[in-house]
């Protein structure tokens, strides 16, 4: 496998889920499990209906175009991509036709790897279109849900600039986070809002090999595994001299078997007979509007990462974890606004909170523990009321019982931090431990932990460990 050059291009489809209505329809743009509930006549291809462009979807598309350093068009217009399929009731899709004018052309984005190195991915184009309906294939029938028909969809097409499965995933994860940070999309693969086509070729020279397309991979893990499988499959064919069996074709990723499966050959591009949609007038995009959109771009993931490292002193690793999901980063930002120490807040968020939401597969927005509650717990550690161990117990009790942390911090379970009270307890323990004291003074310093343990046993684990150790050192040394 290592002797071949791997070249990967991606086509990333992301639903623009943050608009109130669909891209050419007044139907609600909202995820729901109730089939065919967010629809209007135009979504079903009824005759005599006319599309109306959603300006907010266009604004979001142009914002994404600017972030990707693309060239924006002078005029916005849409075309009809003609084909028949049950999930396309009009028998055409309203879209844009690269390399003609679309919302973004010829851009680039720099992606950071986890080890701190970076690579640049060229952007061929990004274009705005309407999504198709969704088909569910059951045992003996197929059903169509038209809720998705007409949902605004951004398709981002890269140049063949990616050379490993890990880099492909890094690119996809960052673009997804940008969609989230800019409030363009939830970009939730569980809701089918992100889909990806992977184009991959391998070659033993500087020239590109035969391109194989893998259609509609629905998870980033699937993208990684599909690429790795396809590299192995094509490499083995070439190693065995079966070059003619690596052909230009479309395959699909099968998660159950962990393999790609042939769908059809793909020698030439299909002729979709594009033409400009006569029902949507051309619209001039003013420089003033583009400048207004540019100014509205929020703080992006890598900008937050730089801030976390340079301003708050966090490690590259911790900053990377924090920015990966906008909801996690927003939670951390709120902790900082409340005056929490950055490193302490980071440890609690990246270890305890991220660990909890991942374990129980819940969204951050559904987490009962607010930043204010977390600050209350940490403040009680800082003032010596509870220990770090007790704080974690309180943390989990809050989440298990959906009750505020003050319900689990009381005088009965508070940490013993009063120096005079601890000195009294320690004096009594030392008075009954003469042989251990003599052994300690003769060089068995590991007995220090014995004395700490006796104090903890006497106080049922409530003694402040820092103050306890200070007193013991004073009295023993």
Largest sheet: 8 strands, mixed
Mean pLDDT: 91
Helix content: 25-40%
Strand order of the largest sheet: 5-6-9-1-10-11-12-13
Compressed to H and E, one letter per element, the order equals EHEEEEEEEEHEEHEEEEHHHHHHHHHHH
> What is the rounded Rg?
30 Å
Structural class, please? Answer: alpha+beta
Shape: elongated
What is the percentage of strand-forming residues? 15-25%
Flag low-confidence runs.
none
Task: Measure the end-to-end span.
Answer: 63 Å
Output the number of helix runs.
14
Strands, count:
15
Describe the structure.
The structure is a single chain. This protein has helices at 55-67, 165-181, 220-239, 287-295, 301-310, 316-324, 326-337, 342-360, 371-382, 388-401, 419-431, 434-441, 448-458, 465-476; strands at residues 5-15, 75-76, 79-82, 92-95, 104-112, 118-130, 134-137, 142-145, 152-158, 194-203, 212-217, 249-254, 259-265, 275-276, 283-284. It has 477 residues and is an alpha+beta fold. The strands form four sheets. An eight-stranded mixed beta sheet has the order 5-6-9-1-10-11-12-13. The chain has a three-stranded antiparallel beta sheet with strand order 4-3-14, with no helix packed on it. Helix 7 (326-337) crosses helix 9 (371-382), helix 9 (371-382) runs antiparallel to helix 10 (388-401) and helix 11 (419-431) packs across helix 14. The longest helix is centred in the middle third of the chain and has 20 residues, at 220-239. It starts with a strand and ends with a helix.
């Amino acid at each position: 496998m290592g002797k071949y050059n791997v070249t990967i291009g991606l086509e990333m489809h992301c639903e623009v889920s943050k608009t109130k209505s669909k891209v050419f329809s007044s139907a609600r743009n909202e995820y729901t499990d109730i089939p065919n509930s967010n629809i209007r006549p135009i979504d079903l291809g009824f005759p005599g209906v006319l599309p109306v462009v959603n300006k907010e979807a266009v604004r979001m598309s142009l914002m994404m175009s600017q972030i990707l350093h693309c060239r924006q068009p002078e005029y916005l217009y849409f075309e009809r991509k003609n084909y028949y399929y049950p999930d396309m009731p009009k028998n055409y899709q309203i879209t844009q036709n690269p390399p003609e004018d679309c919302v973004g052309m010829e851009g680039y984005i720099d992606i950071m790897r986890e080890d701190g190195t970076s690579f640049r991915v060229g952007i061929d184009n990004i274009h705005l279109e309407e999504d198709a309906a969704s088909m569910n294939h059951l045992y003996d029938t197929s059903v169509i849900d038209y809720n998705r028909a007409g949902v605004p969809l951004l398709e981002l097409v890269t140049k063949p600039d990616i050379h490993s499965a890990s880099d492909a995933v890094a690119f996809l994860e960052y673009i997804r986070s940008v969609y989230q940070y800019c409030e363009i999309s939830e970009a939730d693969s569980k809701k089918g809002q992100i889909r990806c086509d992977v184009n991959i070729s391998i070659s033993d020279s500087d020239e590109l090999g035969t391109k194989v397309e893998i259609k509609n991979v629905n998870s980033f893990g699937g993208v990684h595994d599909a690429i790795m499988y396809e590299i192995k499959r094509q490499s083995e064919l070439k190693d065995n001299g079966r070059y003619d069996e690596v052909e230009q074709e479309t395959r699909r990723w099968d998660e159950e078997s962990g393999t790609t499966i042939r769908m059809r050959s793909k020698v030439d591009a299909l002729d979709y007979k594009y033409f400009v949609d006569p029902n949507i007038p051309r619209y001039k995009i003013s420089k003033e509007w583009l400048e207004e959109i540019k100014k509205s771009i929020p703080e992006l993931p890598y900008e937050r990462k730089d801030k976390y490292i340079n301003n708050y002193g966090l490690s590259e690793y911790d900053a990377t974890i924090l920015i990966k999901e906008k909801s996690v980063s927003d939670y951390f930002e709120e902790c900082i606004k409340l005056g929490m120490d950055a490193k302490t807040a980071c440890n609690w968020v990246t270890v305890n909170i991220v660990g909890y939401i991942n374990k129980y597969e819940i969204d951050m927005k559904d987490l009962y523990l607010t930043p204010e509650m977390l600050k209350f717990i940490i403040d009680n550690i800082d003032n010596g009321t509870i220990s770090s161990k007790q704080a974690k117990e309180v943390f989990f009790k809050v989440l298990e019982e959906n009750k505020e942390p003050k319900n689990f911090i009381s005088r009965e379970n508070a940490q013993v931090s009063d120096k005079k009270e601890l000195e009294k307890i320690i004096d009594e323990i030392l008075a009954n431990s003469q042989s251990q004291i003599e052994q300690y003074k003769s060089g068995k310093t590991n007995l220090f932990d014995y004395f700490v343990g006796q104090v903890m046993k006497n106080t049922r684990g409530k003694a402040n460990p820092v103050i306890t150790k200070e007193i013991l050192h004073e009295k023993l040394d």
